[in-house]
Amino acid sequence: MWSADQINLYKSLFRGRDDVFAVRWEKSGKSGYMPAYRFDPYRYRLHQMHGGTFQNYTEKDYIPYDSHQVIKHLEGGHLAGIYPLLQDNTSWFIAADFDKESWVADCRKFIQVCHSRNIPAYLERSRSGNGGHVWMFFEVNYPAYKSRRIISKLLELAGVFSVFDKESSFDRLFPNQDYLSKKGFGNLIALPLYKPALEVSNSCFIDVDTLKPIADQWKFLKSITRIGSNVLDELD
Fold first, then answer.
1. Which residue has the higher pLDDT, 202 or 181?
2. Angle between helices 144-157 and 103-116 (to 10 degrees)
3. Among 27, 66, 144, 216, which residue has the fewest nearby CB atoms (within 10 Å)?
4. Cβ–Cβ contacts within 10 Å for residue 213, how many?
């Protein structure tokens, strides 16, 4: 169903750490994300029988972010997220997350400012349909502290972010850290084109003016322009 070209294109755009990724879980009315692990369920069950928990279970390994996991996500087998901040504190993209009632207006203002500064920016409606991610993709992996500083300035220029404005629909950036700490992988972003959400016109890229899903998502992904480091450096 999925061609190698499609999967390679997807992985080249939505590119984070390849040694680990996250999956969404839901249980007893609660939900969240956690790293995906590979382990022997029989040995884990024995561990549980002796009072152990998954947290202190040592016979587990991270599952890499690869083509198989992308396909599983696209087909709705799991909802995957990636960790954009790489081990050298760079990233292949930066995305701004918007929610609350004014998310559409704020996304439009932000995208307009980005385009005025030669920064191609693309709007994805979130899985819930109640917010949006504005994505910007890089030609090469770029230092997170610099890209976050640049995009924060553009958010302020658009009037959608201020440390004094608690009503703004802007929530956070991905990555949301300049540098990796000694604990964890930084924040994660859910991957787009998740089949169950896509079927109700969410988790997809949309036209900024009409808010309608772009008819051919794969043709659209192929047309995305990636930002050169020289363009970013000029804005820093």
1. 202
2. 110
3. 27
4. 18
E strand residue ranges, the chain: 22-27, 30-35, 37-39, 60-62, 80-82, 90-98, 122-125, 132-143, 170-174, 189-190, 204-205
Residues in contact with 88: Cβ distance below 8 Å, sequence separation at least 6, in sequence order: 141
Q: CA dist 134 to 93, 97, 129, 216, Å?
A: 11, 7, 14, 18
How many other C-beta atoms can be found within 10 angstroms of the C-beta atom of residue 180?
A: 18
Q: Is the pLDDT of residue 76 over 70?
A: yes
Other Cβ atoms closer than 10 A to 129: 12
Please work out, in degrees rounded to the nearest 5, the angle formed at the alpha carbon of residue 26 by the alpha carbons of 23 and 28.
155
pLDDT digits (tens, 9 = 90+) for 140-195: 999 999 999 999 999 999 999 865 666 789 999 999 999 998 888 999 999 999 99
8 A C-beta contact, residue 231 and residue 20: no
Q: Which tokens go with 58?
A: 């040592």
10 Å CB burial of residue 234 (0-12, 13-18, 19+) is exposed
Residue 134, by phi and psi: left (phi above 0), alpha (psi -120 to 50) or beta?
beta
The answer on pLDDT for 41 being more than 90 is no
What residues are paired with 95 via a beta bridge?
Answer: 135, 174
